[in-house]
Design a protein that fits this description.
single chain, 123 residues
Amino acid sequence: MKTSNLIVDKSFNFAVRIVKLYNYLRDEKSEYVMSNQLLRSGTSIGANVREAIYAQTTADFNAKMYIALKEAGESAYWIELLERTGYLKPSHAKSILDDCGELIKILSSITKTLKDNARQAHS
């Protein structure tokens, strides 16, 4: 039986949106450089979250979650740049940025908790 995990599910669904957006940008807008950067960072979020779930150590788990957060921040950058340069309509950019922002909030909360727990362990 598969159990649900909010960050795993949301990061996977975000990756699906990113792949579809990449295909649109490549096929319809003939944009290859920024869309490729977004494809890499946007799909990396879920890959790192999934790796964290199967981490062998706490340090490995923490590192993967921090990387996922950094990749989410990078993804937001590329989406904003694609909008500002006219490759994405503001309404489409807002929709995907809202999803990205939600991932950033969840990952920020996770990494803050990790940091707080590490501090308490060393006290």
